[in-house]
Specification:
Layout (H helix, E strand, L loop, with lengths): L1 H5 L4 E4 L3 H6 L8 E3 L12 H10 L10 E5 L3 H12 L5 E6 H7 L2
């Protein structure tokens, strides 16, 4: 996972909710796409939401782009990764939770 933090082509996908993001911001060098979901609601993990977030962040990607996913502790990212793979993304890795991301970039 440490190599991912140095790879500028990786798209970091944050599945934390907006209150979680506000309470625990990421280091400024972590450029993320946020698709908020809860343990019970993964409805934002879809092509429309993903591409909308990517356009907002001006990120260029395709189905083979490396997606490094995370959430609060890793559970939602694991489940959301299944949806991303079902959507056709081929290079998806769950890097865990918020603390894991902070330690990767510190």
């Amino acid at each position: 996972a440490a190599a991912l933090s140095k790879d500028g082509s990786v798209v970091w996908v944050d599945f934390r909710t907006e209150p979680e993001v506000a309470a625990n911001p990421l280091p400024p060098q972590v450029r993320t796409v946020n698709l908020p979901c809860t343990r019970d609601d993964y409805s934002k993990v879809n092509m429309q939401s993903l591409y909308g977030a990517i356009l907002e962040e001006a990120i260029v990607m395709d189905m083979d782009t490396k997606l490094a996913t995370f959430c609060g502790i890793g559970y939602r990212a694991a489940n959301a990764n299944l949806k991303l793979r079902e959507m056709g993304f081929t290079n998806v890795v769950n890097v865990g939770g918020y603390d894991d991301i902070v330690s990767l970039f510190s």
